[in-house]
Amino acid sequence: MENLNGTENINRSWENIEENIKSSATESLGLYESKQHKPWFDEECLLFRTHRSRLKSKIKASRHFRNKKKLHLRAKIDELEINGNLKNIRDLYKGISDFKTGYQSKTNIVRYEE
């Protein structure tokens, strides 16, 4: 660090340090893959999302997402109705509590010191 001249060398050194830290963290910890929290979001929705800017209007993509979500919710409601008719109380109340609470993100906590 003593032999560095000017801000270009300092910036280049910082970029090297940053790159080394990131690569060593990736090697030792691996990459974190986030979970899919929207079960109604399938490959067709992904295609609409990636080509949204090329669509004539963004309304078409939004309408598609809304319809897919409605179909998913209708299927969940039908499942709850079947559980109620079959006296499957545990799954019925679990499904009802999922509707009431909605999505709640989980916190990533460190479980082990290593």
Could you write a compact summary of the structure shown?
This protein is mainly α. The protein is 64% helix and 0% strand. It folds into 2 domains: 1-33; 36-101, no CATH class.
Question: Nearest-angstrom radius of gyration?
Answer: 24 Å
Strand content: under 5%
N-to-C SSE string, H for helix and E for strand: HHHH
Number of domains: 2
Helix percent band: 55-70%
Structural class: mainly alpha
* Annotation field: number of helices: 4
Multimerization status: single chain
Mean pLDDT: 79
Largest sheet: none
Record field, number of beta strands: 0
Separation of the first and last Cα atoms: 32 Å
Low-confidence stretches: none
Basic shape: flat
Structural account:
This protein is mainly α and 114 residues long. Helix 3 (58-85) packs antiparallel against helix 4 (89-101). The two termini are 32 Å apart. It has 2 domains: 1-33; 36-101, no CATH class. The chain is flat, with a radius of gyration of 24 Å. The protein has helices spanning 6-29, 43-50, 58-85, 89-101. 64% of the residues lie in helices and 0% in strands. It has 4 helices and no strands.
Key words describing this protein structure:
114 residues, mainly alpha, 2 domains
Q: Helices and strands in order, then pairings?
A:
Elements: H1 6-29, H2 43-50, H3 58-85, H4 89-101
Helix pairs in contact: 3-4
